[in-house]
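Q: What would this chain look like folded?
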Amino acid sequence: MRITNVELFVLKSQGLYNNPESAEEPLGPTYLGIVKVSTDAGICGYSDMETCASVAKACVEAPRWSQEEGMECFDGLASLLIGENPLEVERLWYRMYRGSIYYGRRGVAIQAISAIDIALWDICGKFYQQPIHILLGGKWRDKVRAYASTLFRPTPEAMTDAAKAYLDEGFTAVKFGWGVFGKDAHRDVKLVEAARRALGDHNDLLVDTGWFVERTAKEAIRTVKSIEQFQPFLVEELLHPEDYDGYAQVARSVDTRIACGEQEATEWGFQRLIEQGGIDVLQPDLTRCGGFTVARKIVHMAERANRLVIPHSWSSDLLTAASLHLCAFQRRAEFVEFSTSQGPLSRMLAKEPLRMIDGYIRVPDAPGLGVEVNDAVIHQYRIS
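A: My prediction, written as structure tokens:
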């Protein structure tokens, strides 16, 4: 079996991403990339990618720089894969990484590599007639507890209503993030307090403070300590993603679990988060960290260091399905993130959207990712 084509489709939803302070729910991604890897056996693999999709498309479609073996360093990702065996995921990951090393290593290049890697694992699963978690090494669970991932509301009353609504939907955990949080410290405390009261003592509350709010490490410590009385399961994204020393200072100073990593990439980046940043909860996004090939290594690293892994999965059901496979592979998996966005790119890319039942989402057990891509939605929203 050989790879015959690597394509990246740029999708655009209706309207621009909107995160007003009064929003009940974000609309989901405005732009989304969809990677499709085709083979001469008729097996295709898919993945979404939440990045600047038009730039990622250039990374995929750029030409070869040199025909000399061993001189790949400026090459388009597709040119490095055509004619290769898609089952050699580890070798192909490094071939893409080295082949883009002069313009990549992080950012959009590694995000494009991540999505292609997921698509290759999807092909492997379909070829071997196994779900991806089996190929990763094993299945520890059939279902994963989901947390509703949503925005902070602007008032305590709105927070109460939102938390109760998610409980009514069957969630047993809710993460509030971004929105108005970080603009008024007194209001921040009132909002978290309202969420905790509405959720009660037996449901989990997670807090995403939004790193776009500029904080020093000491300000981040004060933020966490101001809401620790409400027992958040974790507090995430307090500081700039590269402020490893700042994260270490925060982690040493508070009792609450500190989480980050959705912008981090490669096994080396996550090793630094563990060793220098002292992070309690790693949050790799499979479409940013390097795909399954890297995420499997992150899980092993986290287990050795006794840290939790809760993958970031906000974009669409394709990423949520991939994250469920990663959670099934982990010996300990607390949550899978479930975006409450209702936009078409969030909810319609899988022919059968993932469903949360009694607080849990079942791990797909069909071959590959285990979800069938809705080609009609790709055609409807594709702009390039």
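The CA atoms of residues 77 and 169 lie 42 Å apart.
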